Amino acid sequence: MKSVFARWIAGGLSIALLMCGVAGAQAPEVPRRPDGRPDLSGIWRSTSSRYLTDLSAGSVQVPFQPGAAALYKQRLANKGQGRPSERCLPRGVPSMMLARQHPWKFVQTPDAVIILFHDSLHYRQIFTDGRPFPADPSPTWLGYSIGRWDGDTLVAETIGLTEETWLDEGGHPHSEALRVTERFRRRTAGTMDVDVTIDDPMAYTRPWTVTVRFELVRNADLGEDVCAVS
Amino acid sequence: MFILRDSVTPWPVEVKSVATGVALLLVLASPAVAQWLNVPQATTPRTPDGKPDLIAPAPRTPDGKPDLSGIWQRTRGVPPTSGGADGIGAGVEVLFQPWAEALYKARAENNGKGTPSERCLPHGITKAVSVPEPFKIVPTPGLVVILHEEFNHHRQIFTDGRRMPERRAPTWLGYSRGTWEGDTFVVDTTGFVNDTWLDFRGHPATDALHLVERYRRRDFGHLEIQFTIDDPKAYRRPWNVTMGFDLLPDTELIEHICENERDAAHLVGK
After folding, report:
1. Does the complex come out with an ipTM higher than 0.85?
2. The whole model's pTM is what?
3. Residue ranges with strand state E in A6-122
């Protein structure tokens, strides 16, 4: 397996980033949409890859259930071998969002927020049209997401995630009972904080939350990074 | 050489047979047949009995242009892949450059074995819409997004008047810009990687490909896309293919990820 064109794209992207810089220094006002909601549109990327390596990032005591603790320990001992991204499979939610080298683009429409990923041309849809979750969603790699606004915060909840995904590249496991809540808050024009809550009673004794900061990538193309099975 | 009728052919263009085994496998592998998401939309026009009115007039966006929104699937009753005899070139006069013709013939004889999607690489534009899995068109101000169910791949078509970037790495889906000509949405795409496949049969395309798509939403339930394939490195003159698509009302895309060895159904020609 190899990442085709990854170097070209990454090269182009880093040049673009160097030339254009990352916004946030002057903190201009958060743009708003005609309906008054914050406009989250733009290309964003994690300010640090440490969350991808370990979602808890050492900032939270992860309340493992015993089985999950054992599995995580085993994955750590194996240096994360067997993670889905090795086989060009999607990292899942939330880990898909966390790779600093793979920015993503928010496209906000009245009915849904669509997230377009640089990684593998994938996408997520977060439905904001008031629909309920499907009664019995078949487990998928990116789950089924519905969103609502809580003041200026977009709250996305995701269920139906296959337990084949890992919460991070280190291997925090989850079951199909997982419910991920992401609270997207655009703090300034150039920065967005996302509170990620992992609620999975099969794997963790209580929900746990981390806050991941993302930065706006200006004047860059999203590009295309495809993963080829060889 | 495939000289049949004229080069602008009304849908359906593909009426030839497709390998039944491949078709069957594709159907079995399609998650769309495994479940169906019922998501009623308030915007769906209905007949008096409450069913979606698929021949109601095409909706329009606030600026008066046809609204292409919806989940679209290749018209039923036609071969489910573009892997049939002559691929998307069926019924169309295709004037190959000699090397391209030789390559195409070799691929066709091999039932399209070696197509990039065998390795989970993107289909390219014409091939991606020729599969049975639907795609969703999401028009937004300045950008039209296309979400393909197959492989969970997305495509962006910029409608903000931007120019083609001067320095840009070539990509599988190229760089697309869209404009309106009356009620037709016209998309220009260049900047492709070399040697994408236009269909499962193996029509080659090079990095010289300039693809023009003309989208026409005939009515609420029907969309037509005419593709003009202009690739002077591979073809002696541009050729056109028109494909028809049916709206899938009141539903949602179902995730489909290329899972390599588990997705053997996509390994055609084996």
Report:
1. yes
2. 0.86
3. 42-46, 104-108, 112-117
